[in-house]
Write a structure and sequence with these properties.
Layout: H1 3-8, H2 13-17, H3 31-51, H4 60-80, E1 87-88, H5 105-116, E2 123-124, E3 129-130, H6 135-145, E4 149-153, H7 156-168, E5 173-176, E6 182-183, E7 187-188, H8 189-196, E8 200-203, H9 211-219, E9 224-228, H10 238-254, E10 258-263, H11 281-286, E11 291-295, E12 306-310, H12 312-320, H13 323-326, H14 331-345, H15 353-359, H16 362-375, H17 377-380, E13 385-393, E14 405-413, H18 418-427, E15 433-434, E16 436-438, E17 441-444, H19 454-470
Parallel strand pairs: 1-15, 5-8, 5-9, 9-10, 10-11
Antiparallel strand pairs: 2-3, 4-12, 6-7, 11-12, 13-14, 14-17, 16-17
The structure holds pyridoxal-5'-phosphate.
Residues 155-157, 183-184, 187, 228-229, 261, 263-264, 295, 306, 397-398 line the site of pyridoxal-5'-phosphate.
Length: 472
């Protein structure tokens, strides 16, 4: 039978909407969307016939069945495809694709309180008058850092945008060519600068920028000096700090604000734990830089937000910028951030999951991994190699790019090609398990696995290994 005849057998939209798989799902809110889904499914069936991908000549009942079935699955996925829990066994602590920092139970409770009822978000209950929604986080940030001013916005990209818009919209921002980078795929500095600044003055070269380069930029009209922490090259640590201090001094001399986009938000002095290669916020502030920005959901370990610290008057100017309204942080995030900052204020660092994972003792990690390896011994008889080895992991979120963490890994070795099958099998489980893979091995890092997920992870590993074996 020819294609033309097949095309004539395509059902009308109305006919599919009447189908018993579709009709019961139609209500006041879903009619328009379901009509669109059905039309799309009929259209792709038509394209299938035309392109030859679908065999011509199928009978009309089967065509209707196929189209209505596909549309019914689309409709069902609206409900079933939800953000769901996964087990992160990659060891990457601040995995942007997996939601970055995990929050502790006190912080989650604070979010729940804010979400489930009315709160005194913008009201001073004592006087009954209107007040600032971020007063608590700014008070905590000022107390913790000793800064005169603090401001929170939606994320760190927004913080950079707001600062540049405030200080360089009617002027120019000077930034090193070596720092005009893309960070983590979602933050392209040059594009943000081009949007917010009147002019972008690129200074220096890709690999070297001197103080004199910034001086010339000021002569050319720069109204903001911006330094960005990059993860792309090795000129970090002491060298950077000297430059930052010199830059801060230059800014003071010429009366131009100097901003540092630090990015990862390290309030805890990780240097003292032997984690080098990145500055924490307090020493950065000591350089005399005027404004520092960073994310709240990276090493800081909070919910998604961007934090700006600096002198009272500079921060005040950013707060008064009308743009800040468009970058405003929501009440649930604020409630969570308040609690995380209280943990810092109280010195309760071990209550913050991201920090706890970064600082987890290697010996304890080896013990957890060995425990899991023992429970999986049964599977080893099925031809899987199971070993506990030392390895490395990255913290993630663009932090500590060149200084990976030493970690313990459960290495599961399979025959050639088997590691990809096992990795896929693990992703298909409920909850999905994410691991690292290299060559013929899958690597499981317990550093990013919460204690109460461990049992489930081990069960899922065993199940996935059995599935792979059965399908061989
Ligand atoms: C991560 C990062 C950003 C982007 O921060 P978001 O909170 O993801 O918007 C900007 N600058 C630096 C240096 C970063 O590390």
């Amino acid at each position: 039978m020819d294609r033309k005849a097949s095309l004539k057998k395509l059902p009308s939209v109305e006919r599919v909407l009447e189908d018993e798989r579709i009709a019961p799902r139609i209500n006041m809110m879903s009619r328009r969307g379901i009509t669109r889904i059905v039309r799309g499914r009929i259209e792709s069936y038509r394209e299938g016939i035309v392109s030859g991908g679908i065999e011509a000549g199928v009978d009309s009942a089967l065509i209707l069945e196929s189209i209505a079935g596909a549309a019914a699955r689309d409709i069902e996925s609206m409900v079933s495809d939800r953000q769901r829990r996964v087990i992160n066994a990659t060891g990457v602590i601040l995995h942007t694709n997996l939601g970055r920092a995990v929050l502790d139970s006190a912080t989650v409770s604070a979010v729940l309180v804010a979400a489930s009822g009315y709160t005194d978000l913008e009201m001073d209950i004592e006087s009954g008058s209107r007040t600032d929604r971020s007063r608590r986080v700014t008070a905590l940030l000022r107390a913790i850092t000793g800064c005169g001013g603090a401001l929170v916005v939606n994320n760190n990209a927004a913080a950079v945008l707001l600062a540049v818009d405030t200080f360089a919209r009617d002027g120019a921002v000077a930034v090193s060519r070596g720092e005009l980078v893309e960070i983590g795929g979602s933050f392209r500095l040059p594009e943000i600068l081009a949007r917010a600044a009147g002019r972008v003055i690129e200074v220096g070269t890709t690999n070297r920028t001197h103080l004199g380069d910034y001086e010339r930029a000021i002569d050319e009209g720069a109204t903001l000096l911006l330094k960005v922490h990059t993860s792309n090259y090795r000129v970090v640590g002491y060298t950077d700090e000297v430059l930052l201090a010199a830059l801060a001094e230059l800014g003071k001399k010429r009366n131009i604000p100097v901003m540092y986009d630090q990015g990862s938000g390290i309030l805890y002095p990780v240097e003292s734990e032997g984690l080098e290669g990145e500055e924490s916020i307090l020493p950065v502030l000591d350089t005399g830089v005027d404004i520092v920005s960073f994310s709240a959901d990276k090493v800081l370990g909070g919910p998604q937000a961007g934090i700006l610290l600096g002198e009272t008057d500079l921060v005040g100017k950013m707060r008064d910028n009308h743009m800040s309204r468009a970058l405003r942080i929501d009440k649930m995030t604020l409630a969570g951030l308040e609690q995380v900052l209280v943990h810092y204020w109280n010195g309760e660092f071990d209550r913050i999951p991201a920090l706890r994972m970064i600082l987890e003792d290697q010996g304890a990690l080896v013990a957890r991994t060995r425990g899991a390896a023992k429970k999986l011994e049964g599977e080893a008889h099925n031809g899987f190699g199971i070993e506990v080895i030392e390895g490395e992991t990255s913290i993630g979120g663009g932090s500590f790019p060149i200084n990976p963490l030493r970690t313990a890994l459960l290495q599961i070795t399979l025959t050639a090609g088997g590691s990809q099958r096992l990795e896929r099998e693990l992703r298909r489980l409920d909850p999905p398990v994410l691991v690292r893979i290299r060559g013929d091995s899958v690597f499981v890092d317990f550093r990013t696995v919460h204690a109460d997920e461990e049992e489930m992870l081990i069960e899922n590993l065993a199940a996935a290994m059995r599935n792979v074996k059965e399908r061989e």
